[in-house]
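Lab meeting, item 3. Inverse folding demo.
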């Protein structure tokens, strides 16, 4: 089995979400008004904390890519998979 990693976009997404919800938590705490409560800030902090799992997964988890025997793959899909494996994705439109 080959070992692969996540694309860099996973890290970027995790960082963007972290910064976004951290900023919302700070703004909701600093610019408090009658509509904001401690729950508002806590929810934003919670979402920011959840984004840490995306970032940690990017660095710590390494998904395994398994090779299936050719007999269990659909005949029409096999040529597409073989062409995609070395890095030549199929065209999206015709």
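The presenter then showed the designed sequence:
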């Amino acid at each position: 089995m080959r070992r692969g990693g996540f694309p860099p976009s996973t890290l970027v997404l995790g960082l963007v979400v972290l910064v976004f919800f951290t900023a919302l938590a700070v703004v909701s705490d600093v610019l408090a008004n009658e509509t904001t409560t401690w729950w508002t800030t806590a929810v934003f902090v919670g979402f920011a904390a959840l984004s840490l799992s995306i970032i940690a997964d990017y660095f710590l988890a390494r998904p395994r890519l398994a090779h299936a025997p050719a007999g269990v793959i659909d005949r029409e899909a096999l040529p597409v998979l073989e062409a995609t494996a070395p890095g030549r994705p199929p065209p999206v439109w015709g």
